[in-house]
Structures are given as C-alpha cells and as structure tokens.
Amino acid sequence: MTTGDDRAEGATPARPVVVDVAGSRTWRRAFGDLAQGWQQRPLWGYLGWQDIKQRYRRSVLGPLWVSISMAVIATAMGILYGALFQMDLPTFLPYVATGLLIWNFVNGCILEGSEVFIANEGLIKFLPAPLSLHVYRLVWRQSLFFLHNVVVWAVLMVIFPHPLGWSLLLALPAFALLVINGAWIAVLTGIVATRFRDIPPIIASLTQLLFFMTPIVWQYDTLLRNPAVAERARIAEINPVMHFVEILRQPMLGQPIVWRHWYVVAVITVVGCAAALLFLRNYRSRVAYWV
C-alpha cells in the first residue's frame, strides 16, 4: 500500500472528471422555463390564493378588506384633491379611484417583483420548480387584488354614471398588457435584485416618486388646457407608468381613447419582454446560488 507521500516527484495530480452537459444559457431552456411554469397553473394558482387568505386570516371580512381599504383611500383622496383643485366631485372621484385601482396593480408588480426570488428563497433552494412559477404566482396574486378592487369602480359607476360604451371592451386587452408587463418586470428586476440586494430599496423609493409624477390625483388633460403650463405639462409623458394607467382608465371611464398611449405601451412591452428573456436565458441558473 502506498500513501500520498510516496508519489513520484514528476507525477501530475489527477484531474476530476467533468461530465459534459448541455449549456444552461440557451433560449430553449429560457422558453422551457416559461412553459413549465405555465403548465403548473394549479400550483401557483393555489399558492396565490392562499397568499391572500393568509394575509387576512381570522378576520371577519377576509379579503373584502382589500376593497374596503381601497374605497376609503380613494374617497379621502378624491374629496381632498377635488377640493384643492376645485374639481367636480362626481367626475373627479371615479377618476382618482380608477387611477388608484390601476396604480395598486402596477405598484404591486414592481415592488414585489423586485423581491420575488428573494422572498421565495426556501422554495427555490429545495423545490425543483421553474423560476417562472414564482413570477406567475406574483402576477396572479396581484390580479386577484385588482379584481377585488374592481368592486369599488363598479359601485362608483352606479353612484356617478359615466357614458360607458363599446370602448369598455378595450379594458380587457389593456389589462392583459398590464399583466404581461408585470411579468417581465418581475423577471428582470427579480434577477437583478437577487444579485444586488440594494435594488429593492432603490425601486421602493422610485415608485413613491412615480406616484406623484403619474396623473392619479391630478388630471393631465386639465394641465394641457392651461396655456401657462401646457408645454411643461407634456413632460409628464416621459413617465411610462402614465401610459399604462391611461390605456385602462380611459375605457373604464368612457373617455375618448388616445391611441398614442397604446403605441407607447406596445413598444415598452416588446422591449421589456426581450430584455427579460435575455436575462432569463443568461442568469436563470445562477438565481439559486444568489438567493
């Protein structure tokens, strides 16, 4: 028997055997991750619903608190800012409530999307599931919140009738665009934030700023009709969230459809999805190590 000390001086140490495997940075695996996550709809659908039930566990009204809190905030802000801006309350209150309804969905996708993989650290490490499952779960949960809050919009439409027409059907593709963009934002920011943990606080600060830059408690059209600030008011269109809010709020309030907002959203959707797919292709295999 020989030991390590008996090796010949010129001998070279044995190298570990490396098994060749298919590269992880492939488009096939990126699209496969999305497809596998979509096939597990019963799982992320159940988990998303359980997230809501857990949040309001042992409360009398349960998830109805989502709509109640939304109604209280919308009413308070509508009355306050309506008085400050001298706006007609039957028109301004539904405007603010609908804007908050859409903003809550967008804000939820951005904030929770940046921590979607960090928050699911345990599942990612111990459950062999595609990363997209956690993204689908997040978007589904935010969609359920949105559907709960639609009750507030429906009540306001009964109290303050608006001239709703066939354009209301555009709310369906508009919301679908919001869902798609919420998904790619979660994928992109989730991967980056998992690697760089300073990203979530930065995003949280930026979303607070975006709220005041987005026409939710103030009306963009009113500023455009004011010759003194009309030119400067157009700077608001630099904010991409404004276009997402408008494509859904306009059909929900029976307002004339401004197709410029749809074109901007379409471009952002294509560019964002391409960027998210690129990050998913290059870094999906590293997320489990980063968390």
From TrEMBL:
A biological-process GO annotation: lipopolysaccharide transport
GO cellular component: plasma membrane
Subcellular localization(s) per the UniProt record: Cell membrane
Taxonomic superkingdom: Bacteria
Pfam families: ABC2_membrane
Topology in the lipid bilayer: Multi-pass membrane protein
TM region positions: 60-83, 95-118, 138-160, 166-187, 199-218, 261-280
Molecular function in Gene Ontology: ABC-type transporter activity
Keywords, sorted A to Z: Cell membrane, Membrane, Transmembrane, Transmembrane helix, Transport
Residue span, ABC-2 type transporter transmembrane domain: 45-252
Family note: Belongs to the ABC-2 integral membrane protein family.
Protein's UniProt name: ABC-2 type transport system permease protein
Species name: Pseudonocardia hierapolitana
